């Protein structure tokens, strides 16, 4: 059985690794001139690590990343709103996105990887299975589901980067009025950070001045980053199906979500393993993946409602009070609600 994977991001490469593992012949077509990922961090959540384990690359991921427990959620002045205990939490692997992408790339033979090949139609592809992993603006999705709405602006813009910084910083999220920030220390003297603010798309904003009053070391991390990456945040309205004929949508092409749970790439890894597990039964893939990703997509939307979108001083004070009152066991349970996924046991 032959599969063609369109798109060589984390989702496409994970699909290629997973399908090869169950005996498929696979080629990957990437439209860019080289395979690569942007310079920012990714938190490999426990659910994603289980998918990588199934793919046989988790040891390499653990070697290149740093296992961390989440410190919790902070206020703009640095005080903890939710301070999570070190015990009872599963670890998140903090790593550079390029390293995660590199692990997947090295798990594939170079002769199946093609760059500079933009795929514009699934009809042209001679394969038993086509995996559309061509990102949020997927051309294949537009061809297969012409009536489905495209990506919608989620009302916020984000900046991301990697800067020199202390190794002992806690992995944390900070919530302020109409904004949020996160730090993901890599443990090697580099800290991945992101900040986001509620704003119109393409607003002309400077993150250095926007986040100047936030707790240390956020202002310094932003100011000392050579290459700051800017993204307006878009999400894809829920699709009626992830499959059509022999084509399966995967990753952001199927369910691009807001980044507030840090689960977008993790979902693409889950998709990949599930697609391989069902061994060509695309109806089953659709039946398993749509409810799961819908729940995380909605969870991320809610995390935004109670996080970045809270702006008025009264709402902010109420939200912060509720967070402080939350028992840590409940906070940990709130996190594991999304990360407790296991590789589905499917008949081969
Ligand atoms: C600000 C922000 C922060 C985030 N933080 C996190 C996080 O901490 N954790 C997390 O899990 N996720 C996070 N995400 C989400 C994550 O980045 C995405 O969900 C993930 O990268 C999607 O991977 P993908 O392979 O599906 O798509 P992409 O990474 O978009 O890859 C698509 C690939 O397909 C190629 N391509 C496109 N069209 C064609 C074509 N026609 N022919 C051939 N190739 C094509 C592209 O060049 C690209 O290489 C974040 C996203 C944002 C915006």
TrEMBL record:
Keyword field contains Hydrolase: no
SUPFAM superfamilies, A to Z: FAD/NAD(P)-binding domain
GO molecular function, one term: FAD binding
Gene3D superfamilies: FAD/NAD(P)-binding domain
Pfam families noted in UniProt: FAD_binding_3 (PF01494)
Limits of the FAD-binding domain: 2-72, 121-277
InterPro entries: FAD-bd, FAD-dep_Monooxygenase_BioMet, FAD/NAD-bd_sf
Alphabetically ordered keywords of this record: Monooxygenase, Oxidoreductase
UniProt xrefs under PANTHER family: MONOOXYGENASE (PTHR13789), PUTATIVE (AFU_ORTHOLOGUE AFUA_6G14510)-RELATED (PTHR13789:SF309)
Name of the protein in question: 2-polyprenyl-6-methoxyphenol hydroxylase
């Amino acid at each position: 059985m032959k599969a063609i994977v369109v798109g060589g991001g984390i989702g496409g490469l994970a699909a290629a690794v997973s399908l090869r593992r169950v005996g498929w012949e696979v080629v990957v077509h990437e439209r860019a001139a080289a395979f690569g990922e942007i310079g920012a961090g990714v938190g490999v959540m426990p659910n994603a690590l289980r998918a990588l384990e199934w793919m046989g690359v988790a040891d390499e991921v653990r070697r290149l990343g740093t296992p961390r427990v989440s410190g919790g959620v902070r206020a703009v002045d640095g005080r903890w709103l939710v301070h999570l205990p070190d015990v009872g939490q599963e670890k998140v692997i903090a790593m550079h996105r390029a390293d995660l992408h590199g692990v997947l790339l090295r798990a594939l033979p170079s002769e199946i990887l093609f760059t500079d090949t933009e795929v514009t139609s699934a009809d042209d592809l001679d394969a038993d299975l086509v995996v559309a992993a061509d990102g949020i603006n997927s051309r294949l999705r537009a061809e297969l589901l012409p009536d489905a709405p495209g990506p919608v602006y989620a009302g916020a813009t984000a900046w991301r980067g990697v800067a020199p910084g202390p190794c002992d910083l806690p992995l944390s999220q900070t919530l302020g009025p109409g904004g949020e920030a996160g730090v993901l220390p890599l443990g090697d003297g580099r800290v991945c950070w992101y900040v986001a603010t509620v704003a119109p798309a393409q607003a002309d904003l400077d993150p250095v001045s926007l986040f100047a009053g936030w707790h240390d070391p956020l202002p310094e991390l932003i100011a000392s980053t050579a290459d700051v990456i800017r993204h307006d945040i878009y999400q894809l309205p829920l699709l009626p199906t992830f499959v059509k004929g022999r084509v399966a949508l995967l990753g952001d092409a199927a369910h691009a979500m807001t980044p507030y749970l840090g689960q977008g790439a993790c979902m693409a890894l889950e998709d990949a393993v599930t697609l391989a597990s069902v061994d060509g039964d695309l109806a089953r893939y659709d039946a398993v993946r749509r409810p799961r990703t819908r729940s995380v997509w909605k969870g991320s939307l809610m995390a935004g409602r109670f996080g970045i979108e809270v702006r008025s001083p009264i709402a902010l004070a109420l939200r912060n009070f509720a967070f402080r009152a939350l028992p840590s066991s409940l906070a940990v349970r709130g996190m594991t609600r999304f990360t407790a996924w296991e590789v589905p046991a499917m008949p081969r």
